[in-house]
Amino acid sequence: MTYSEQIEQVRQALHEADAVVIGAGSGLSTSAGLTYSGPRFQEHFGDFIQKYKIQDMYSGGFYPFETLEEHWAWWSRHILINRYEKAPKPVYDELLKLVHDKDYFVLTTNVDHQFQLAGFDKERLFYTQGDYGLWQCSEPCCQKTWDNEETVRRMVAEQRDMRVPTELVPHCPVCGRPMTMNLRCDNTFVQDEGWYAAYSRYEDFLRRHKGAKVVYLELGVGGNTPVIIKYPFWKMTYQNANAFYICINLSESCCPKEIQARAVCINRDVGATLHELCL
Question: What are the tens digits of pLDDT across the range 1-25?
């Protein structure tokens, strides 16, 4: 099948769908310009690169900085440009254009909240792996999280020589221990009330559309955590004869032979394909 035929098939499937479940991985944000290496990384972290020879934003998040002041100088910049600033390219906006008039829900392993910044309904979003905009206790002493935007903006504005002022270093309001990012890196990840509420809404959405014409639209999902999006999407498509599976990924687009008759797999840049679909 040619690329143009694939595009037509995707358009038709979305047009006929009763509901669309979007599964989004890091490839979607990378396509939108939220790159963690190269010029964007060098622009915002030149001093850290020079001092510590850090290779990219991802590895920098694990660097054992000697002080919390330096740790939060790094992380506040990372949070600001990847969570509170919109992605450089309109990929998320074009995705919303495709589904805004549909009954949709988003399941994502991304933690940058670009869906909300693009105008997606926050009641239709489930961020399974955390949120750059939330802090939690590093212990953790409780299943709570705290918004960090105000403090992060101050950290970026007031840091000097790769250090934030000591009074801005966040500590848990409950026990006083240092705060950490609300990201699923190990078994200390906090699933707060908001997390469980979003999970419940997602489960309810799937229940309400069981057996309906559902399109499972997988975007930029790699092989790191296939059990969260990829494998469930395959399984749900297989179990529902009315379902249709779409996978768009620059290099890892595939599906099992059992659902190939009701699937389209496009090995191209996510953003470029979404733009084509919007034309």
Answer: 899 999 999 999 999 999 999 999 9
Pair 4, 63: CB distance under 8 Å: no
51-186-270-107 Cα dihedral, nearest 10 degrees = -140
Looking at the DSSP assignment, which residues form a beta bridge with residue 104?
Answer: 20
124-146, pLDDT tens digit by residue?
999 999 999 999 999 999 999 99
Nearest to 232 by CA among 32, 21, 90: 21
Query: In angstroms, rounded to a whole number, what is the distance separating the alpha carbons of residues 110 and 257?
Result: 28
**SS3 letters for 78-139?**
HHHHHHHCCCCCCHHHHHHHHHCCCCEEEEECCCCCHHHHHCCCHHHEEECCEEEEEEEECC
Q: Report the C-alpha dihedral over residues 231, 145, 159, 177, rounded to 10 degrees.
A: -120
DSSP class of 141: S
234 to 44, 104, 148, 259: CA distances (angstroms): 39, 18, 36, 8
Nearest to 127 by CA among 114, 110, 144: 110
* The two structure tokens encoding residue 120: 């997606």
Enter the tokens of residue 210.
């069981």
H/E stretch holding 21 reads strand 19-24
Give CA separation, 115 vs 30, 41, 119, 180, 182, in Å: 14, 22, 7, 23, 18
Q: Is the pTM of this model over 0.90?
A: yes
- Six token digits for residue 151: 């403090």
CA distance 151 to 61: 18
